[in-house]
């Protein structure tokens, strides 16, 4: 499998994380859930998890057709003081939000390899993600974060609690993400294409009559 790459220059740890958190208004344990506001992304699961974690703050990054329903859910659960909607943000602001957060929560019901998982890890921020499709490929070691036992608010709250109680070293999380540089990804793509070309040529040669191969030689 050819892995995705991440911009390690844009998504990186910050020198003064405390100052960044103050500027962003982050107080206490802080969780980011990022992605288009559609059912597949599971922002509703993240919101419901906050009802089980009254000391946590959830910052939802993204826009989409589910925003109204998600805001109603927040209001109905009495979580207006815990959940903040940021809407669509620039890539530099996303990098700041990820670097300032204590963890990224991804509650999707399907993903390839979600870019935001690598982006968070590149910022030194561990992730808690549903164990679906490509996520285990990048949440493969403890310093990367953890995979939730299932896609429920209870499992999300449990995973968040585990990471907050025993967070991995942020420098180790960053080092894990450095395996996924765009240079490494480009080399993997090139090697895959070269292998495919060699295999195709070999197949063509094997399919030629022996005398045709002899004439060519």
What would a concise description of this structure say?
The protein is of the alpha/beta class and 217 residues long.
Counting helices, strands and paired strands, the structural category is: alpha/beta
State the major sheet. 6 strands, parallel
- So how many helices? 10
Give the averaged pLDDT, no decimals.
Answer: 88
What is the CA-atom radius of gyration, in angstroms? Answer: 21 Å
Write out the strand line-up for the largest beta sheet, numbering strands in chain order.
Answer: 3-2-1-4-5-6
What amount of the residues lies in strands? 5-15%
SSE string, helices as H and strands as E: HEHEHEHEHEHEHHHH
Low-confidence regions: 186-196
Distance between the termini: 36 Å
The number of strands is: 6
What percentage of residues falls in helices of 4 or more residues? 40-55%
Molecular shape: globular
Structure, described:
- This protein has 217 residues and is of the alpha/beta class.
- Helices cover 47% and strands 12% of the residues.
- The chain has ten helices and six strands; from the N terminus they run αβαβαβαβαβαβαααα.
- It has helices at residues 17-24, 43-50, 67-76, 91-100, 115-122, 135-138, 153-165, 170-177, 182-207, 210-216, and strands at residues 30-34, 57-61, 83-87, 103-106, 127-129, 145-147.
- It has a six-stranded parallel β-sheet, sandwiched between helices.
- Helix 1 crosses helix 4 (91-100) and helix 5 (115-122) crosses helix 8.
- The longest helix is centred in the C-terminal third of the chain and has 26 residues, at 182-207.
- The protein is globular.
- The two termini are 36 Å apart.
- The model is unreliable at 186-196 (pLDDT under 50).
């Amino acid at each position: 499998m050819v892995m995705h790459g991440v911009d390690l220059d844009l998504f990186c740890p910050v020198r003064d994380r405390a100052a960044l958190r103050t500027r962003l208004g982050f107080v206490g344990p802080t969780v980011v859930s990022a992605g288009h506001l559609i059912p597949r992304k599971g922002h509703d699961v993240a919101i419901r998890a906050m009802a089980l974690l009254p000391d946590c703050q959830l910052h939802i990054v993204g826009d989409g057709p589910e925003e109204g329903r998600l805001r109603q859910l927040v209001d109905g659960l009495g979580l207006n003081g815990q959940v903040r909607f940021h809407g669509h943000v620039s890539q530099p602001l996303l990098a700041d939000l990820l670097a300032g957060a204590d963890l990224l929560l991804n509650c999707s019901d399907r993903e390839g390899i979600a870019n935001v998982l690598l982006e968070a890890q590149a910022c030194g921020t561990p992730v808690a993600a549903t164990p679906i499709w490509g996520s285990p490929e990048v949440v493969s070691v403890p310093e990367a974060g953890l995979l939730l036992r299932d896609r429920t608010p209870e499992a999300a709250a449990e995973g968040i609690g585990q990471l907050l109680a025993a967070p991995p070293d942020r420098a180790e999380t960053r080092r894990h993400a450095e395996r996924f540089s765009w240079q490494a990804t480009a080399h993997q793509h090139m090697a895959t294409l070269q292998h495919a070309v060699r295999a195709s040529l070999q197949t063509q040669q094997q399919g030629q009559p022996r005398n045709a191969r002899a004439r060519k030689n």
